[in-house]
Amino acid sequence: MRYVEAGGRITAAARLFGVHRQTVQGWIRLARGDGLREARKPGPRGGRKVTETALHPALLARPDAKLKE
C-alpha cells in the first residue's frame, strides 16, 4: 500500500493487483489498524443443533424418516 501512501490512486492500485477498488481500501484500513483484525468465515454464524434427547423420540415416532424431513 506504499503506492497509495506515496500518492498513487486507489483505482490504479486495484488494476495493478487485479482486485476491486474496495478490496484495496480494505487493505489500507487494515494497514492503518482501523479495520478488522482477522478474517471471518462466510456463512451463518451458528447452526441449528438438535439435542439427542429431542432426536430420540422423533426417530421412534418416524423410523422411516429421511434427513430432509
From TrEMBL:
Region spans: Disordered: 38-69
Domain Insertion element IS150 protein InsJ-like helix-turn-helix: 2-48
InterPro entries: Homeodomain-like_sf (IPR009057), InsJ-like_HTH (IPR055247)
Domain of life: Bacteria
Pfam families membership: HTH_28
Transmembrane region(s): none
SUPFAM superfamilies: Homeodomain-like
Protein name: Helix-turn-helix domain-containing protein
Source species taxonomy: Bacteria, Pseudomonadati, Pseudomonadota, Gammaproteobacteria, Candidatus Competibacteraceae
